[in-house]
Specification:
homodimer, alpha/beta, Aldehyde Dehydrogenase, Chain A, domain 1, Aldehyde Dehydrogenase, Chain A, domain 2, 15 helices, oxidoreductase (chains A, B), NADP (chains A, B), Gamma-glutamyl phosphate reductase (chains A, B), glutamate-5-semialdehyde dehydrogenase activity (chains A, B), GPR_dom (chains A, B)
């Protein structure tokens, strides 16, 4: 019996992946106008069918409450008129962005007369794996369609009613468009076994993008043979060197820690050079505490402040994602860089300094997707960088690193024009 | 006991990977001059110690012969003075290429005054997995060092004496350079178990590059959780449409098939549109047969020629890598494109045509790393494209696609300069 069930599971996955792949081929030929028209139609359809969507969403919310889902998760799961309106508006904004597909990145001629150019093309089929946030269903789908990619969505079982409703509505919109409706596929089977199968579906999927917490992402990275776009955790540091302007340093540290503590580009550790700490650490600690931040500090920090929790080894590697921060005092810039490279997650790292030498050293030696001088790590974001959209923030080094805009969902193709050349 | 052995195996791998990672950090800071000097020193050292290298290589050759290794594999394994000279010369040529590390790819300013730039940086640690070709040891090492990457080499057990000798010589050269000798690591344990462990060593390796046959590559792709740069098989097609110039079409088909049949960019199937076939197929078949090419043909081809082997389903998907070709006759351009997308390996595909419409359609719809008009597929090559070096030819869509030059061994970093900006 269990064998039969497995075959059934597998066949939904493979069948939908195959349909997505076939649709990807047709999608790749769509013009920017055809793709934008489809996005507009989805935007309209979401609002037209909002009652249906909210009714289905409330089923998930009821089941979630019954199963003891906490308030923060329920809030992420919840859709309402305002959130649907935001989704619909985001789709319209997306139509205004430049379509990267077809862009000629380089063109050159070889001595033998061959004319070679590099042209952006869609990736093909994108596998999205995400948690109980139905907005990702619409967000991921729209980014994929804009870039000519088909998408196979695998959301959480706890959002299945919402996701099915949203994909049904998207299909209703696509029926009125030139795009194939098979370009958007939702896996209704949300079992772990099928997810594991999806991780290894190299024949049909060109890339997997996990969106969610560190655990989900690591599960995908550690098990997938399909190439993964790793959007990762952020254990981000602010390093205040001895030349830093005290007002600016404290201002940036407060912002990076407290403006939105739950996000990956928030600061989790502050590293302070001793000469600066001697004069300004108490002021920094006080300012953070006034904002309600709980401080874990090393021996030096404990000496100079009240209510400091002793920081242990585990604090340096912790993403608190809350109003908590670890503070460490170092003698040298080298010591700070070594610490950051040891405990950081290669996301966003900042130095506050008035020394060009220290800044250039930090930029060169700190291994991270984004390195900052005299600015908050909170700017690591596709919108803040001016990309107009964001797939996620890559913490891996292949393909795309840092905030990923639409071009991260494309590949390239060499187009070679000859006049009969042979080798 | 087997547990103990496993620990020992694992510890060589992890220890060397850890050393490579530590060295990568130092390597990333080296100037172009320091890296080029090291390449020159390796070039000199290879020639100075050639007697030692050739003596060690002959041990592998003797063992290979004793174990019944075939002549073609023995030839790939063999080093001699001429081949060492070629390696030494290639190192000097590499010093003349532009160092991609440090290149500023883009720079822009945001309305809030943040100055953002994208800078090329090394990947970190590259894991190379390859077969019994000792030249890859030197080739891979030199490309990695030029781009500031450390390398963990895992060659074949049948080339272990050669590889150990070459790495020892490379270390002798690095001792005289500013580069850390730990940047080049050779795994002496060539067991499958350790290779499998290496496939999943995400904590230390930034990328795996398999170099060798289709089987090796697929083993790595299907088992690795470390990101892979897939350099793949080539089932390349020449499509001759009804408007093609007969002389040019035959010339290109002959070149793509026969100039070097054993390589991945050689042609394996020729697709001919019926109207052209009616007038010129016999001439094409005859020209191929005169070059010693064995022809597998569909029913139409069989009718018009002698000594045609009936082509079956399996022929369309076969990389002969020899003087054999499959020929299929189609009615339409669409039929040709569908066939190519079904059986091709997304490597290199050519159309021979005088119709702009057909060419643009082919360029748009054929899914391959390189698409050609009126030229031989044999040009898909880093040197032919003018890159001056080649890591391999990527058939995947993430990171790099097609011939990969030095930039394929780099990542990027966002460098953000502020004046106190907070969010």
């Amino acid at each position: 019996m269990s064998g039969t069930i497995e075959v059934v599971q597998s066949s939904e996955l493979v069948q939908k992946a195959r349909q997505a792949k076939a649709a990807a081929s047709a999608l790749g030929k769509m013009t920017t106008e055809q793709k934008n028209k489809a996005l507009e139609l989805i935007s309209t359809q979401l609002l037209e069918e909002q009652k249906f969507i909210l009714a289905e969403n409330s089923k998930d919310l009821i089941i979630g409450k019954d199963n003891g889902m906490n308030d923060s998760l329920l809030d992420r799961l919840k859709l309402d008129e305002k959130r649907l309106k935001e989704m619909a508006d985001a789709l319209i904004l997306l139509t205004e962005l430049i379509d990267p597909v077809g862009e000629v990145l380089e063109q050159w001629e070889r001595p033998n007369g061959l004319d070679i150019s590099t042209v952006r093309v869609p990736l093909g089929v994108v596998g999205m794996i995400y948690e109980a946030r139905p907005n990702v269903t619409v967000d991921a789908t729209s980014l994929c369609l804009k870039t000519g990619n088909a998408v196979l969505l695998r959301g959480s079982s706890t959002a299945i009613h919402s996701n099915k409703a949203l994909v049904q509505v998207i299909h209703h919109a696509l029926e009125k468009s030139d795009l194939p409706i098979e370009a958007v596929q939702l896996l209704e089977d949300t079992s772990r076994e099928t997810a594991s199968e999806m991780f290894k579906l190299n024949d049909y999927l060109d890339v997997l993008i996990p969106r969610g917490g560190a655990k989900l992402i690591q599960t995908v990275v550690k098990n997938a043979t399909v190439p993964v776009l790793e959007t990762g955790a952020g254990n981000c540091h602010i390093f205040i060197d001895e030349t830093a302007d005290p007002g600016m340093a404290i201002n940036i540290a407060i912002n990076a820690k407290t403006q939105r503590p739950s996000v990956c580009n928030a600061c989790e550790s502050i590293i302070v050079q001793k000469n600066w700490a001697d004069d300004h650490l108490q002021e920094l600690v006080k300012a953070l505490q006034e904002k309600g931040v709980q401080i874990h500090g090393d021996a030096f920090v404990q000496q100079g402040g009240n209510q400091i929790i002793p920081a242990g080894e585990e604090d340096w590697g912790t993403e608190y994602l809350d109003l908590e921060v670890a503070i460490k005092v170092v003698e040298t810039v080298d010591e700070a860089i070594t610490h950051i490279n040891q405990y950081g997650t290669k996301h966003s790292e900042a130095i506050i300094s008035a020394s060009n030498e220290n800044v250039e050293k930090f930029f060169m030696e700190v291994d991270a997707a984004a390195v900052y001088h005299n600015a908050s790590t909170r700017f690591t974001d596709g919108f803040e960088f001016g990309f107009g959209a964001e797939i996620g923030i890559s913490t891996q080094k292949l393909h795309a690193r840092g905030p990923m805009g639409l071009p991260a969902l494309t590949s390239t193709k060499y187009v070679v024009r000859g006049t009969g050349q042979i080798k």
